[in-house]
Amino acid sequence: LDTSTHTDSRRLRDLEGLTETMGAQVGDCPSRCHCEEDGMLQRVDCSDLGLTDIPANLSVFTSYLDLSMNNLTLLSSGALSNLHFLEELRLAGNDLTHIPKGAFYGLFNLKVLMLQNNQLRRVPGEALQNLRNLQSLRLDANHISSVPRGCFDGLQSLRHLWLDDNSLTEVPADALGALSSLQAMTLALNRITHIPDRAFTNLSSLVVLHLNNNRIRTLGTQCFDGLHSLETLDLNYNNLEEFPIAIRALSTLKELGFHSNNIKSIPEQAFTGHSTLLTMTITGARITSLPTTVCDQLPNLQVLDLSYNMIQALPSFRGCEKIQKIDLHHNEIEELQADTFQGLTSLRSLDLAWNKLSSLNPLSFSSLPALIKLDLTSNRLSYLPVSGLHGLTHLKLAGNEDLQELLPAESLPKLRVMELPYAFQCCAFVSCEKHSSPWDRDNNHNGKDDFGRREGILNSDSFSDLLLDFDDEPKSHHTVQCSPSPGPFRPCHHL
Amino acid sequence: EGPPSCSNGCERCSEYNGCIKCKPKLFILLERNDIRQIGVCLASCPQGYFGMRTPDTNRCIQCKIENCEECFNRNFCTKCKEGLYSHRGRCYPSCPEGLSTTNGTMECVE
Predict the structure, then answer these.
(1) Is the Cβ pair B72, A160 closer than 8 Å?
(2) Chain B: residue nearest A6 by CA?
(3) pLDDT at A448 over 50
């Protein structure tokens, strides 16, 4: 993407020749602007100066020009025509309503063009013609409702396109047809309601596609055909009612998100052909069940987020050997079978909070060697099967009023952070006798309990995104945090 | 040190934390200043960050990709650090197997 060493040396030879012939000064810096030397070239920052016109005496060796946050309302044709070395032009945050043909004439080396946060109503196609080296084009946060056919013609190097936060009511399929090198595009925050078949058919290099925060209700069954390289598809915050079976065309998909839609069910063979899928997020829909063969279709899945749905029963996740995180909180799950989570040797975090679990099979968690975080907050449990939980470091059981038994600390030796239903249950982990009164604590007490764990009062550790901050190896001496913490008014003895 | 002033894109300025609400369409970047966070309003996010737009707010979020200078979203890089090669939004010390660069760019293609 960036200029490599070969192109740089050729450009420098051009520069030296140009300097001699034109005798131009590299050092011309328009008044009130801030200029920095970039080798033989110059970076010019004229942002936020209240300018109403482009500075006249710009050096021909300007490689970077920032005119953001000014009051430019018009770009005259040829205004920048002598800036042959310009690579980045920033015009964000002005009041441009129209950009005439020829405005960018002469910018043969332009790579980055920022036009976001202006008042454009249509893509200024005439002005964009022949920008052959343009790689990044920002048109986000305008009022664009029209993307004329051919407006992107000639942009053969374009890799990244921002059209989010505009007024598009449909996918500009015709115009996009010219962008076979495009790798990342966002059409988020528009008013698109339907995606027709073959809308992205020429975008064979596209890797990332954001369509979130639109009003998409229906998808053509072949609307994603042609996206042979797509890895990330974001359909969050739309009005989808049916599961988008069009994703079957996406054989390289790694990350799929369509939370906050109205999808009620997932068809049995929904993920056929998606062996590459790593992350799937379908939260906030109204899904009541999952395909029984979900893991046969998704053998490489690593993260599954199905929180905030209406799932009542779970299939067996056998076959998802690579799955590391399952979020099922805020559903209506009532029971777990012995084989529900059988054989998930990579599973590290399981979140079943806010369900209706009343009975657990004794073997529910028996074959999860990597499990370190288990959240069963606010269910209806009266008993916790501890078989297989010896590696657990974080356990949350608050809100299970019927669970009044003591937990066997010897079966949970690595626990460091706990939220339990009652204070007395913490005593097995936080040695309450030494805490009968903070004033007469034994001074030579070194603050360790019987398991060599340093005691502490809980300020509950937040369950941040697990994949980002796993403690691979528990520290040799770690703080045990347990809540509700026992004390004078919450004695260790169960009243 | 008196309360920090706010840039002209700010809609609501706080006494000790800079801007807490930017004008529409601008991105808010939270800069750390000692123990304080100072809000700054920008038309585009600085290097190492990308701009995420949502219906309620626009924020600058850190790129999470190794060896990346500028990114499109959390896991797609648009500009790798000097001397590194890029392929499908990732940065490499050399082109992955089966790929090579074309006409002097730093991009690896089939």
Answers:
(1) yes
(2) B104
(3) no
